[in-house]
Amino acid sequence: MGIKDTAAEWPVIATQTPFTGNKTSVRTDEVEMPDGTVVKRDYQVHPGSVAVLALDEEGRVLVLSQYRHPVRQKLWEIPAGLLDVPGENPLHAAQRELYEEAHVKAEDWRVLTDVYTTPGGCDEAVRVFLAREISDVEGERFEVEHEELDMELDRVPLAELVRGILAGELHNNALVVGVLSLSAALAGEGLDALRPADAEWPARPFEA
């Protein structure tokens, strides 16, 4: 027996959306607490995301550096992107992002971990995939724009990424979660024990 997160939903007395952006919005709910009081909770409504930890045959992780304006830093990250279509299969979205951002494909896919990035103020759910047996994709590259124009690509040994995370030098959520989860899997039951790529995801249900 172990601990696990469970579904729960307290009564919402009223709700409004004071701001709607291009990809996300802000919602204000009036929530009834267990003692009967009603309080307001503001949070960002997010479509969800996928991220890909692509591991090559030499044990290196494919990473990219991209400018992130809210934190005023260029962060080293793993390929990632939004679930643009409601109900979209997250594996298909992950394969698309790996192709678009790194021009790479993979033959072996597993679910590495599922996380809520900031559950106190945002409902974003992220599924992090492990992709192995990777190879470059032939053909025309995806046309980049905006922050992606300044993107750098690299392949870094897993141990070096772990060191950078623990030293406080690497901060991207999906990178940190993915790298440390991979390290734990390797030290535990091994990568073949990870969930299959089509494992159910209650936070973002999808069609097979």
From TrEMBL:
Residues 44-183 form the Nudix hydrolase domain. SUPFAM superfamilies: Nudix. Keywords: Hydrolase. InterPro entries: NUDIX_hydrolase-like_dom_sf, NUDIX_hydrolase_dom. This is NUDIX domain-containing protein. It comes from Streptomyces aureoversilis.
